[in-house]
Amino acid sequence: MKHFLKVFTFLLFSFGLIFANEFKEIKEISLKKDEQKKILVKYDDKEKLFEFRWTLYKNGGLVILRSYDTIVAQNVLYLRNQNKSFRLILKPRGSGFFTEPYVLVRFKEFNHDTGEAKFELLLSDGSGSIELKYLKNN
Q1: Do 80 and 60 contact (CB within 8 A), yes or no?
Q2: What pLDDT was estimated at residue 17?
Q3: What's the CA gap between 48 and 31, in Å, rounded?
């Protein structure tokens, strides 16, 4: 019986590590067309602003405009399996190259009645050095 408990405990912790969620924080947001979402990213003694909005939904593709730390980019996201999300690296690559923190913005659904797109923001931060502050829209 004692041996059985050791094996059971080992398997329990092993499966816990294997299926652990790599994301520290998960948040869902809904945005209307041209409604901008601003997120203040804090790490070390720095503060950077991450902004994004969508401008067009056509043929299942959602056009996203985003900026982070004065770098502007555009993505087209789809609800099908590929091109469903984009990944934003939050900290410059340094010694923690393999554990660099990032935000994954995933396009979840589009409501045709309200004209709102729903997103899921997932923060991956193995070192725990990133803080996200969701700012209110003006």
Answers
A1: yes
A2: 45
A3: 21
Give me the DSSP letters along the chain. Answer: -HHHHHHHHHHHHHHHHHT----SEEEEEEEETT--EEEEEEETTEEEEEEEEEEEEETTEEEEEEEETTEEEEEEEESSSSS-EEEEE-S--STTGGG--EEEEEEEEEETTTTEEEEEEEEE-SS---EEEEEPP-
All structural domains of the chain, each given as residue ranges with its CATH number in brackets, are 24-134 (2.60.98)
pLDDT tens, position by position, 6-44: 765 655 555 444 445 678 888 999 999 999 999 999 998
Mean pLDDT of all residues in 67-84: 93
Q: What is the pTM of this model?
A: 0.78
pLDDT for residue 18: 46
Residues 6+ apart with CB under 8 A from 70: none
With CA atoms as reference, report the closest residue to 89 among 99, 78, 79, 75.
99
